[in-house]
Amino acid sequence: MGRARPGILPGMARIPGLLAAAAALTVLFVGGCAGDTGDGADAKPAVCESFAAAQLTADHIRDANVSENGLSQVRPLLTQLREQLTQLVADAKAQYATQADAIRTAVDGLTTSVETALAAPSATNLTAVRDSVGQLRESVDGLRDAISGTC
Question: Where are the domains of the chain?
Answer without folding.
Answer: 13-31+44-146
